[in-house]
Specification:
alpha+beta, Aminopeptidase, seven-stranded mixed β-sheet, 7 strands
């Protein structure tokens, strides 16, 4: 049984669940793919979720009452932005990322959005291919001190 829940604003327990998913996903990407952009101490993962929650809605996907995936969204005009899509390692490859994408796209459509935008770490080939398979196209790049992200967009 799958169920999406929006974490209520200022719900520290919900934010902690999202941070744990991000943290576990980050450790797994570092170990298996040598990608370290999410490989943070747990306290930093929690701080990132708290900071992002100031402007984003945080969602958690539960499977049989266990938190297994998370993502964050925010609406700007007719564009829906999403970030921090993560699935716990032991549930990876079971369609939960696709289920999250379906929820994101439904939310965008229900909100009157015309486009969905995301940023994905340039070196994360698996993630880039996942989004391309879902119909997202590269629309630019964002450079930071530590890495480069690809801006991807889908017109609804």
């Amino acid at each position: 049984m799958s169920e999406f829940r929006t974490v209520r604003k200022f719900d520290a327990a919900g934010y902690l669940k999202a941070a744990r998913i991000l943290n576990r996903c980050g450790k797994d990407m570092a170990e298996k793919e040598n990608l370290h952009h999410w490989d943070n101490p747990m306290i930093k993962s929690f701080a990132i979720v708290l900071l992002c929650a100031a402007s984003n809605d945080v969602y958690i996907l539960y499977e049989h009452r266990k938190a297994v995936a998370t993502f964050q969204i925010r609406k700007r005009g007719t564009d829906l932005y999403f970030e921090k899509l993560a699935v716990i390692p032991e549930a990876s490859g079971k369609g939960l990322g696709s289920l999250c994408m379906k929820k994101i796209e439904e939310t965008a459509g229900d909100s009157g959005c015309r486009t969905i935008t995301l940023e994905v770490y340039e070196k994360s080939r698996r993630a880039v291919l996942f989004y391309e398979h879902k119909g997202y196209e590269a629309a630019g790049k964002v450079h930071t001190k530590k890495h480069t992200s690809i801006v991807m967009r889908k017109v609804l």
